[in-house]
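Retro notes (design track)

What went well: tokenization of the new backbones is finally stable.
What didn't: we kept losing track of which sequence belonged to which structure.
Fix going forward: every design gets posted as structure first, then sequence, in one message. First example under the new rule, 407 residues:
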């Protein structure tokens, strides 16, 4: 998703091994040669179909030895402005994905006889229950004062490192089990303040990304308000079996909020998909009392009862239809848990149609695919967000709708 691994190392038997980035095939061959020769070797690769999944292999660990794995990566936090009792603030969301749900393999990647939930290249393995401990701490550094850090499911202790409250030490206090994504909301004051951050390069890194100085600028541009924008909004709702339970309830509540918040001068459509797909109307309808009544009835009876997760066909159907007319702008709002393996195909389709249709995406539930949700939004010229708990649903929905209704 919005992350890039830049360092991978392992320490075993007091020996430190630092990985080098290589072409996929070359790296696999080097790893296998080392293992076959009896050497201790480590290997990690990004999944070719799902960019939010990494696979790590460890070969030839001596008996009774402990292996320490160190992984470093850059990650862009999702940020949005909010209004609190003390005024305007910025909310930055940090999430450490800790749940990996089974991914549906669509018919385009698997034959009818072996289509299943899982990964097409999955290997068979035996699971063994072993005790584990998880600890988490973080050093926070910001250009603006850190107001607070909160979490819906976990308890953190925040200790400020200076009077200006721009640096802090964060420690997880509650016991963590890998049944949900570790997530926290970082509240920052003065979100519109102009800030510039400079990071000096590592002189030992030649030719790589760490060998370049980095400069980031944060500012709030002023745009001329366009009051003559006519929007055609398509709600694309994942109704596959993996959405059952809490996820489909969040999808229903999200759709209700969207419908109640639509401007009266727009046109809208609802498309639900699973193994097949179906649309509420033959074509997008004007916002009227009758169309809204039908939409609310659809929302009320919506369930995760449409089978697999064949989103490609649903998107192709939307793109194949003509936009209402000149001066109208089509926006797709996509609600999903993202549990599919053909992400590359879906993202490519969205990218090919980005000139005529913008796409915004909301990932629902723990384990929602970050690579699919952020990938389609980026390819479609829109924005993405995640709802892992009920407390964030309303502000996320309203924020995404506000962005979607802009030119």
């Amino acid at each position: 998703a919005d992350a890039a691994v830049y360092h991978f190392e392992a320490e075993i038997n007091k020996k430190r091994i630092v990985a080098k980035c290589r072409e996929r095939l070359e790296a696999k061959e080097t790893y296998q040669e080392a293992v076959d020769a009896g050497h201790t070797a480590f290997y990690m690769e990004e999944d070719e179909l799902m960019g939010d999944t990494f696979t790590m292999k460890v070969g030839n660990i001596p008996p009774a030895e402990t292996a320490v794995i160190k992984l470093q990566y850059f990650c862009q936090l999702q940020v949005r402005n909010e209004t609190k009792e003390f005024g305007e603030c910025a909310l930055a969301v940090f999430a450490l994905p800790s749940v990996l749900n089974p991914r549906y393999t669509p018919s385009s990647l698997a034959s009818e006889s072996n289509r299943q939930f899982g990964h097409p290249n999955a290997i068979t393995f035996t699971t063994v229950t072993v005790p584990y401990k998880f600890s988490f701490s973080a050093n926070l550094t910001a250009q603006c004062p850190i107001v607070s850090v909160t979490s819906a499911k976990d308890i953190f202790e925040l200790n400020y490192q200076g009077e200006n409250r721009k640096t802090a030490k964060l420690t997880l206090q509650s016991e963590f089990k890998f049944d949900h994504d570790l997530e926290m909301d970082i509240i920052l004051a003065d979100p519109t303040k102009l800030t510039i951050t400079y990071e000096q390069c590592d002189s030992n890194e030649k030719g790589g990304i760490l060998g370049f100085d980095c400069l980031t600028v944060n500012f709030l541009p002023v745009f001329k308000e366009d009051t003559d924008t006519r929007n055609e909004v398509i709600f694309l709702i994942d109704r596959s079996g993996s959405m059952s339970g809490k996820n489909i309830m969040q999808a229903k509540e999200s759709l209700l909020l969207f419908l109640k918040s639509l401007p009266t001068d727009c046109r809208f459509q609802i498309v639900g998909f699973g193994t097949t797909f179906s649309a509420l109307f033959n074509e997008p309808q004007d916002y009227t009392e009758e169309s809204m009544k039908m939409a609310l009835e659809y929302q009320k009876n919506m369930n995760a009862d449409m089978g697999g997760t064949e989103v490609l066909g649903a998107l192709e159907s939307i793109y194949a239809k003509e936009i209402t007319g000149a001066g109208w702008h089509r926006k797709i709002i996509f609600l999903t848990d993202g549990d599919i393996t053909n992400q590359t195909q879906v993202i490519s389709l969205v990218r090919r149609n980005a000139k005529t249709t913008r796409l915004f995406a909301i990932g629902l539930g723990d384990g929602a695919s970050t690579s699919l949700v952020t990938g389609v939004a980026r390819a479609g010229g829109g924005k993405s967000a995640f709802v892992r708990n009920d407390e964030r649903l309303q502000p996320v929905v309203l924020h995404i709708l506000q962005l979607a209704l802009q030119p």
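Added context from the reviewer: Helices lie at 24-36, 246-261, 289-301, 311-320, 343-352, 370-379, 393-404.
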